[in-house]
Write a structure and sequence with these properties.
113 residues, alpha+beta, HIT family, subunit A, five-stranded antiparallel sheet
């Protein structure tokens, strides 16, 4: 059964998309934790980071490069942003499909929750 994110990537479920290409889709989180809260999702369904294989290294590298591009395009690159991967239920993972949370638009204190 396709995940929520697979359905968003395919267009079956609508989302406020800010970037998409052949490898990934970036959209606004529906329950934002910061003024800017985007999710960058690979079109390939990888359950979580430790399930990625050596054949996923180009995809993962592409996604990291896209974070910088999206930050510049959306105008939050100058003041900084945080990148979060919740890996597994104890880390707060709600959808079993690897995704990057991009948070910006306010001071993000450390340590996080």
């Amino acid at each position: 059964m396709p995940t929520l994110f697979e359905k968003i990537c395919s267009g079956e479920i609508p989302a406020e998309i800010v970037h998409e290409d052949e490898y990934c889709v970036c959209f606004r989180d529906i329950a934002p934790q910061a003024p800017v809260h985007l999710l960058l999702v690979p079109r390939k369904a990888i359950v979580r980071l430790e399930k990625a294989g050596i054949d996923d290294q180009l995809l993962l590298g592409h996604m990291l490069l896209m974070v910088g591009q999206i930050a510049r395009e959306q105008g939050f690159d100058q003041h900084g942003f945080r990148l979060v991967i919740n890996n597994g239920p104890d880390a707060g993972e709600a959808v079993p499909h690897l995704h990057l949370h991009i948070l910006a638009g306010r001071r993000l204190d450390w340590p996080p929750g």
